[in-house]
Every structure is written in C-alpha cells, then in structure tokens.
C-alpha cells in the first residue's frame, strides 16, 4: 500500500460491505494484506487493462449483469458507477459475451466447450477469451467475499 | 498408506490428472520476459502446464490471480492449511471440477495425513466431515458456493460454535471464494485427462 492515502485507490470490497478504517472487520481483513491488495489489483487489471477485442465498456456490462445474477446489489452499483466513464455502445460480440458470462456465473458445472466455440465464432481471440473468463471467474470470488463479510459484520463475534 | 490409496467415486478421483486446454496455450519459446516471470511466480511447473500457459495470454491478470491464490492457500498462521484444502475440495466437488478436486484431495491428504474425509466429500459434500469442525467447514463451503446471497449471521455462528476465530473465518471465506474463481477457469477453459484404465 502507498504511504500517501490519496495514492491508494479505494478498496472496492470494503465499500461494498460498508467497512471503514477502524471497524474491527476492516482491520481483521488487513491481517491478510496481500489478499486485500491482490483482490483490488485483480479488479483493476480485469476491468481496465487494455485488451484488444474486449472493450472496458463491454467488461463493465458483463460485471453489472454477473453481479445482478449473483444478487450482489452493492457490487452491481459499483460497476454501474464505473460505466459513467465508459459509455461506448456494445460491440457486435456482446450477445455471445453475455451468454457466456451468465452461464459461467450461474452454472459453472456445465464446463461447456461449445461456449468457448461461440465466443470464437463471435470474433474473440484467445487473449480476449482468457480476459473475459478471468473477469467472470473473479466476479464469482468477489461477490462471495462480499457476501461472507456482510454476514460476518452482521454477526456478534469477537470485536478485538 | 491410507493417504495414498486411490479413491474413485461419483466421477471424482484423487489420482494425478492431466489437463488439456480448449484454447491454444502460449508457446513458452515465444513467451515475453514478463510472461515467463509471471509463470514462474504462479507455480513451480507453470512453464510446462497447459493451464498456466493458457492463462499467461493475460500476464497481468494471471499475476494478480496468483498473488491472491498463493496468499490465500499457502500463507502461514490463521486457519490450518488442511482446513483450507478441505474447503477447496468441497467447493470443487460442488462445482463439478474433477481436476481441481483431484489436486486438493491430494493436498488435504498430505496435510491431514489421512483420506477418510476425502471419501466422504466425494460421496456427499453436504454431509462430509469426520468431526463437528470438519462438518461445519464443509457446510459453510457449500453455502458460500450455492447460496452466497443468503449468507447470514447464523452461518458464521455455526463456525464460531466449533471454535473458529474471526481471522480463521476470513481465511476460510477466502479459500472457499477463490475456488469459485479457480473452478470456473479450470472447468470452462479445458478438460481433465483421466487415467487410461
């Protein structure tokens, strides 16, 4: 973490859970500061790192829909807010991306080779498919961490 | 030895499997310096693994995934590593990831020095566990995997009731959640190659 607080991007997980510095759970998360930092760095890279054939706007569409499908309203609102700076229209490949993202979010058991084929048919290359799959898979992690921390915050544990 | 006996049940196994990508893995001969660095940081055998060579198409994304994964599964202190592996194994069975299940069944057996819980998880993760604490971990791992939006304080009290501290609960939550991430890659970008017999 950067010594100057202004240089530290806000932690999306804290915001979604409603945690502030000084809260017991905020400080308990920092026992695993590498996990905190890598989770935020993953978020930043997966959403904002340039990827040929996979716009930031389409990735944010994926994020909003995946979070809505996972019933994660705080994270859906976060990605909707990011959309304000990335309002480009959907690409021609969007319907294939959307179908892939929703299936992977809600039904990971399927393990469907045809789903990868449909992304290729829509024009995504291997670099774009890896980026899209990493994003959707990360969102399954992020929504679960937030859901678990919300439940933990609402329970009466030790406050040390 | 009980921890190296082959267990095959319900389509799952604790044998070492191979994995074949549905994309074209990176050719390590053509990898950039950054890609090789990220591969080496991710896993000791990553340069010869189709899985890591596929993910290396996006090296920065792989770098941060591996930082998170390695910190969650290997960092000292907090929740015992065998219990993190139990959570990983239960999630992998629940998500139908045969490859991940085989790896984490082995890791659990190595760390716990026994395989009785592995058989139970393969049979039915919902009721698996040889102690109240193991059963609570398995129940929680399934709940986070299948109904994350309806997790409530009672789910956390069930873990405290078997002696878990809040830092241990956070470690378990991380381990279970990151297998929601890992399973989706391993089970949807390629397939396991099962032993021939």
Provide the descriptors you would attach to this structure in a database record.
heterodimer; A: 160 residues; mainly alpha; AhpD-like; 8 helices; 64% helix; 0% strand; elongated; B: 197 residues; two-stranded antiparallel sheet; two-stranded antiparallel ribbon; globular
The CATH topology of chain A, please?
A: AhpD-like
What is Rg of chain A?
A: 17 Å
Largest sheet of chain A: none
Percent of residues of chain A in helical segments? 55-70%
Number of domains of chain A: 1
Explain how this protein is built.
The complex is a heterodimer of chains A (160) and B (197). Chain A has 8 helices and no strands. Chain A has helices spanning 12-17, 24-29, 33-48, 56-69, 73-83, 94-106, 113-121, 126-153. The two termini of chain A are 23 Å apart. The model of chain A is unreliable at 2-9 (pLDDT under 50). The radius of gyration of chain B is 17 Å and the shape is globular. Helices cover 57% and strands 6% of the residues of chain B. Chain B is built from 9 helices and 4 strands. A two-stranded antiparallel ribbon of chain B has the order 1-2. A two-stranded antiparallel sheet of chain B has the order 3-4. At the A-B interface, helix 2, helix 3, helix 7 and helix 8 of A face helix 3, helix 8 and helix 9 of B.
